[in-house]
Every structure is written in C-alpha cells, then in structure tokens.
Design goal:
Blueprint lengths: L8 E8 L5 H8 L4 E8 L12 H9 L2 H8 L6 E4 L3 H4 L2 H16 L3 E2 L1 H12 L3 E6 L3 H13 L3 E7 L13 H11 L6 E4 L7 H11 L3 E3 H12 L11 H5 L1
Parallel strand pairs: 1-2, 1-3, 3-4, 5-6, 5-7, 7-8
Helix pairs in contact: 1-10, 3-5, 6-10
C-alpha cells in the first residue's frame, strides 16, 4: 500500500529550526505524488555571528541532526532531503561523504545533501569554472571553496554576504542578491552557485539564468532536483530554471 498523497515518494526534510525558507521552497518545487515532511533541528537564533563563531555555530547545529532524523523517520519517509547546507561542505569531499554516511546509517534510507547536489547540478550543465555566493562568513566560504575544488571545479571568486543572525539570512533582499550575482559574473565564469538554504533564491536564480545567459544554481533547487532524480522521478517543473525543466 502506498501513502494516499505521497504515492510516488515521501520525503523527510531536515532543516534548522531558524530556517524559514527551505519549507516553502521545497513545497513550491514539489511534484504530484511526492510529499515533504519537515523535521526541525533545534537551533538557537544567534544574533552575534562573526567570522570566529560561524563555524562553531554551524557545527553546534549539526549535533542536533540525528535527533531530527529520528523524529522524521517515525512517518516512514522513503528518502531524506537535507535543508541545511553549510555543514555539508565542511572538510571537503571527505567531510561531505562522512556527513551523508552518518545520516544514512541512522535513517536506513538515502539522503540528498547540498554539497553533492550542487556538484551534480554543475556536472549536468557541463560547467567547469564557477563563482559562488553565500550568506556565510569568509571562514565558511573557504570550506565551500575547498569542497568545489576537490570536486574538480575551478572556483574563480566568491562573496560571503555575512548575515547578522540565522533568521537574518532570510531577510537578505532580492536586490542585494541581484547585485551580488552581477559582481560574481564574468566571461571566465561558466556558472554561478548560491549556497545557504535560508537565502531565498529559487526564483531569482531562474530569472538570472535568462539575463546572464548561463547557469545560476540555487542550492534549494539543486538539492530537491537531486532528490527527485535520485529516486527516479523525472517530472519537469517550470519556472525554477533549466535544472528542473531540462535535466
């Protein structure tokens, strides 16, 4: 017997309790027969983030991941989708693989994580050289750069937007994001990537692909796309960029 609404797949979604963007983004990307079931990772809303505290703060958040996994597994999802990106880039490819293995060992089902999903999206587009933006601090951008470099891409430049709090990430405006995209672009860049799941970019990235005439990958789009395709769900979704409609 299949779930009446999730007759294709039930996705368990893991995200920090301070994140207000992932849940609506993933619901907008959802296709018929797939349901999303959100499990919040308890996260105090730090309002004094700095270059010195950002890594420590995100690693503290990661300590609650397995509790969130155990909670969401009670609805028996078929697959998990990670709605926090920073920790999936830490310690390069080795760290990403270890994080994925940790979650899958606990859940006994697969999981799509932001780092590997963005790499898969870049490969789908055939991109080699990239630039990226984040709401992080420089110390975390260095980890993202390390991951993409180890994954075989050339990172040409990056911009950390340095949100003042965890909830403040979702308060970064579309205008600010647009200006950042323009700073990251150039003839040497094959694709631009946005990381940081609480930054609302799935629509702006899709629009930017048209006026920049190159792939612009929002991490929430990439991660949900990866979850769908990994589960053999080939439905096309329009209005959120070529990744969801062409690949």
């Amino acid at each position: 017997m299949r779930d009446a609404l999730g007759w294709k797949k039930k996705f368990g979604v893991l995200g920090p309790s301070t994140n207000t963007t992932v849940q609506p983004d993933f619901d907008d990307l959802r296709v018929p027969g797939v349901t999303n079931h959100y499990s919040r990772i308890f996260t105090p809303n730090s309002r004094a983030i700095s270059n010195e505290t950002f890594l420590a703060g995100t690693k503290k958040i990661s300590e609650g991941v397995l509790d969130a996994v155990r909670s969401v597994m009670t609805c028996e999802p078929d697959y998990l989708v990670m709605g926090m990106s920073a920790i999936t880039f830490y310690d390069g490819m080795k760290g990403a693989n270890e994080f994925q293995q940790m979650v899958e060992t606990e859940a006994k089902v697969g999981v799509s994580i932001g780092s590997h999903s963005c790499a898969a999206a870049l490969k789908a587009y055939g991109a080699k050289g990239l630039s990226f933006m984040s709401p992080y601090y420089p110390v975390a951008n260095a980890e993202v750069r390390r991951y993409f470099t180890e994954a075989g891409f050339k990172v040409l430049r990056d911009i950390p937007m340095q949100a003042p709090s965890w909830t403040g990430i979702a308060e970064i405006t579309t205008d600010e994001c647009r200006e950042t995209l323009m700073k990251l672009d150039g003839p040497d860049v094959d694709a631009i990537v946005q990381v940081g799941t609480n930054l609302s970019m799935i629509r702006l990235a899709a629009a930017a692909e048209m006026w920049l005439n190159k792939p612009v990958i929002a991490i929430n789009t990439a991660t949900y796309w990866h979850a769908l395709r990994t589960n053999g769900i080939s439905d096309k979704v329009y209005g959120f960029g070529r990744l969801m409609s062409d690949f």
